[in-house]
Amino acid sequence: MAPSSKKVVLVIVVVVTVAAVLTAPGPALAADLLVGDSQGWRLNVDYDEWADGKDFIVGDTLVFKYAKGQHTVVQATAASFAACSQSNSLGTWASGDDRVPLNTSGQWWFFCGVAGHCEQGMKFGVTVLPVVKLSSSSSSAPPALIAHGGGAAAGLAAAAVAAAAALLF
Ligand SMILES: [Cu+2]
């Protein structure tokens, strides 16, 4: 009786550990992404090139740095973005050090609201990916977790699952 109840306790501990690893709120998973990297937010930067190949995931934050008064940040709908129009803007920032939390998945569109800057290419769109939670039935880690350093957590979880399996069988 004693050995088997010890086994059960161990399994419960392992399962709780796995759950904690998989559901931990993610400072490690969320990232601050400096728009334009060292060039910041200004004219004559190819922001499509900057965004190309990067992962944007719900919980990440875009950071726009620029000289206050020289530029602004406008979040737009797809149609307004295409027209460089601020009439249906979803948000506007102008502090020079603007943080825009990407809190929903899907397409996000940005441009500078200073006259002429959007037309000159100060604009870009990003696709924000949802956070995919692992479950014990997942056979592989989703790209989002791998891209943001969740590999170690996933590996730990996998090891814990293996340990639980070893105890059970
Ligand atoms: Cu501008």
Automatic annotation (TrEMBL):
The keyword Glycoprotein applies. It is found in: Membrane. It comes from the Eukaryota. Residues 31-130 form the Phytocyanin domain. GO terms for molecular function: electron transfer activity; metal ion binding. GO terms for cellular component: plasma membrane. InterPro entries: Cupredoxin, Phytocyanin-like, Phytocyanin_dom. Residues 1-30 form the signal peptide. The keyword Glycoprotein applies. It holds the Pfam family Cu_bind_like. It is a single-pass type I membrane protein. The chain crosses the membrane at residues 145-168. GO terms for biological process: response to symbiotic fungus. Keywords: Copper, Disulfide bond, Electron transport, Glycoprotein, Membrane, Metal-binding, Signal, Transmembrane, Transmembrane helix, Transport. This is Cupredoxin superfamily protein.
